[in-house]
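User: Run a structure prediction on this.
Assistant: Running it now.
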Amino acid sequence: MKPPRSFIALLLAGTLPFTGCQTYEEYGLTHKLWSDPSLTDYYEPAGTRNLKAFRLPPAARLQVSYDERREKDSSVRRRAFFLPDSAPALASKAKPSFTNPAPATGWIEVPVIVAGEPVPEASLYLKLAADRKSFTVVHAGVADGPHRLPTYVDQSSTAFRVALTPVAVVADATVVAVFCGIMMLYANVGGSIPGPGRPPP
C-alpha cells in the first residue's frame, strides 16, 4: 500500500532544510548572514612603523603601543597593551585589555627597530616585522615571539547581523512555506502539475 501523497509532500517539506539542492546549507539567508566573511569587519594594525614600547625598571613587563586601523571606515587610533599580560589574547586573535597609550611616570622607552635595521646596543629591544603587523621582543640576545599585533572582530558588524537576523529568518520561513505549498498542491492535484502540452489530471 502506497503512503498518501499528502504524507510524502510533508516529508519532502520537512527535509528541505537538509536537502533542497543545498538551499539551506549554502543559500539560506540566515546561514549566509552568519557565515559570509565579507560581512565581518575587524580592528587591525595600521601597518605603520609607529610601534613604541616602555618598561618600568626593574620589572620586565612592557607597555606596547601601536596604530590601530578600523576596517569599516579606515580610521586610525592609538592603542596600547601590556606584555606578557596580553600574550594569550594576541595568540588567539582576541581583543586584549587595552590601556592608556601614554606611559605612566617612571616608565622608560625601549628601543624599537624594523627588521633589517642595525641591532641596537641595548640589551632589551623590540624588532618590528617587515609587514609591520608583528614584533619580537629581544632580551639579552634571546628572542620572544613573534607576537601578532591585535586583530579582532569589530562588534558593530555582529550587531548588524543580530539586527538583520529576524528579517532573514522570516525570509527563509517564507521559502519553506512556498515549498510546502507546492508540495501540498502536488498532493492535491494527484501527483502532477499541468504544464505545456500536458492536460490537467
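Confidence is low (pLDDT under 50) at residues 1-22, 33-38.
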